[in-house]
Known about the structure:
By secondary structure, the chain is mainly β. The protein has one domain (6-196). Helix content is 12%, strand content 36%. The chain contains 3 helices and 13 strands. It has helices at residues 51-58, 97-102, 112-121, and strands at residues 6-8, 12-18, 23-28, 35-41, 44-48, 68-70, 76-83, 135-137, 140-143, 150-153, 161-167, 171-177, 191-196. The protein starts with 5 loop residues before the first strand and ends with a strand.
Amino acid sequence: MPDNLTIIPPRSGTSFLLKKGQRLKVVDIEGEQVSDFVCYNLADKAEAISSGRTIDYAETILLTKGHPLYSNRSNVMCEIVEDTVGRHDFLLTPCSADTFRIIYGHTQPHRGCFGNLCAALEQYGISPDAIPISFNLFMHVTVDGDTGRVAVLPPKSKAGDYVVLEAKMDLLVGLTACSAEMSNNYAFKPIGYQIEG
């Protein structure tokens, strides 16, 4: 495990800047831990990562090494340049207090990745309504081809697995250690990251 990883504690999130050409390495330190990734064009934060456009242009929901991630304006924001897992999700929204209330029945729900992203990005002027569907690193979601039913399964990532994203423009990034029980095989663990270049 690299010594210079920044650690995101379980069920929390952070934000930072990633300059064009820099690479972001996101590491699943202990295994089976999801990390929600969102990004914005630093020069115009109304431009944000887009699940719909990325999936449309890739013609697959299984995004991995070699796939660019597009913005709501059809610009490439970053590209997946390394991926030791090959299974991530770009369908489901960041978990939130509403997720825990509606799906899990919690009466005093955790704020989830959505709340953590809101808190981390607020200093940059990002409002809750401006937080898009996240690219959910290491999340294992299946879709039944006949019924369309979505299932959240334990991540396939093992301790030390990672993804590297290369920025194609100056970015504002939000990143979490996911808070949803089902997504992380019912254990909450840290996520590590480092910026290269």
